[in-house]
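Morning F.,

Quick status update on the modeling queue. The single chain you submitted on Monday has been processed. Sequence for confirmation:
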Amino acid sequence: MTARVDVLTDGYAGDRVASTVTLIRDGDAVIVVDPGMVADRSAILDPLAAFGVRVSDVTDVVFSHHHPDHTLNAALFPDARFHDHWAIYQGDRWEDRDADGFDISAAVHLLATPGHTAQDISTLAETDSGLVVLTHLWWHADGPEVDPLAEDLDLLRANRDKVLRQRPALIIPGHGAPFAPR
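Structure tokens below.
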């Protein structure tokens, strides 16, 4: 079984900031990754509807890390389970678990990738086109080579290498369009 990955909105960073928001579907799992800052909530909701997905269909939301530009619109999905680096949250339930190696579905897995923050995780989706990695190890296709906000630049570089060793077909960065790694 493989997942289907669709970007709902390409993020950007500069004078204004928006996270890249992504939809992953795998069997019964309907996952939104990083529903953070966007110019208008329609940038998330309209593409979601175009894919035939209602807000109530979303089963899981993943936060790559806890900066507001990646989490601000989480409340759009009140029925979902929320995943971060150390727990799953739903309603008034808090279930401790390490995200590293956690399977959201058969083809969607979490990987600890600290560096930008100590709590960063990446989402790995096995698709018909190969492995897709959603991560804040890169802001966009061109880097930046030196993340100006990285809490641990050496760890960030080591985790970039860890991700690239998995030979992803596509990387979906925190603030840009998907790209094929070089």
